[in-house]
């Protein structure tokens, strides 16, 4: 669950219920982290790394012929992902990184977000030199977030241009956004998370890349 979703629920339920809900979320995060540490960073997988948007993807069903590994945890920021790279990155075939929307909700400074994403890329490179990494644009939300998201995505794109060629930027907005910069209504229920059609649109963008990875091209 995102920070925005928790805030809306908190206003409806009150402080005590919100604290309890926050505790449940934290326990869920820790449960996933513990399992990732127990199973380890499995080799020769295509890793989906990020927050709840990655976590909720049924990647083995969208890509039944690809060796996928889900390393998404709901509610996480870029710093939290950085902290758990050992359980995500072994010797992957490729990495799809999607992170940043919870950082923006938490009002973290954009330079800090981009710096942390850079450290994630450094960490992947140390663990698996030369591994293809796709830094995906932070997805659209409601239109009021457009300017912030345009700014952070521009910074991420600049970050990637300063990296080796096996690190690439993948712009998801043409597939997901309306003309005014909102996540398209048919792809979401809360203007943050994707529904089934939203995942279909996203995986349509990813599929040619996944096919190239699995074919060895």
TrEMBL record:
GO terms for molecular function: phosphatidylcholine lysophospholipase activity. Pfam families: Lipase_GDSL_2. Coiled coil: none annotated. SUPFAM superfamilies: SGNH hydrolase. Residues 48-201 form the SGNH hydrolase-type esterase domain. PANTHER family: SGNH HYDROLASE-TYPE ESTERASE DOMAIN-CONTAINING PROTEIN, THIOESTERASE 1/PROTEASE 1/LYSOPHOSPHOLIPASE L1. This is GDSL family lipase. It comes from Naasia lichenicola. InterPro entries: Ester_Hydrolysis_Enzymes, SGNH_hydro, SGNH_hydro_sf.
């Amino acid at each position: 669950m995102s920070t925005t979703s928790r805030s809306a629920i908190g206003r409806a339920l009150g402080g005590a219920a919100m604290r309890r809900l926050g505790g449940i979320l934290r326990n869920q995060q820790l449960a996933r982290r513990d399992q990732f540490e127990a199973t380890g960073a499995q080799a020769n997988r295509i890793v989906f790394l990020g927050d709840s948007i990655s976590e909720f993807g049924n990647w083995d069903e969208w890509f039944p012929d690809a060796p996928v590994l889900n390393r998404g945890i709901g509610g996480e920021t870029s710093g939290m992902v950085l902290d758990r790279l050992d359980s995500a990155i072994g010797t992957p075939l490729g990495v799809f990184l999607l992170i940043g929307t919870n950082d923006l909700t938490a009002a973290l400074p954009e330079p800090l977000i981009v710096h942390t994403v850079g450290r994630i890329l450094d960490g992947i490179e140390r663990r698996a030199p030369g591994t293809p990494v796709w830094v995906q644009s932070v997805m659209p939300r409601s239109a009021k977030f457009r300017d912030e998201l345009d700014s952070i995505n521009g910074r991420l794109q600049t970050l990637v241009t300063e990296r080796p060629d096996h690190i690439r930027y993948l712009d998801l907005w043409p597939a997901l956004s309306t003309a005014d910069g909102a996540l398209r209504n048919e792809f979401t229920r809360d203007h943050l998370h994707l529904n089934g059609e939203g995942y279909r649109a996203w995986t349509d963008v990813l599929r040619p890349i996944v096919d190239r990875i699995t074919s060895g091209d």
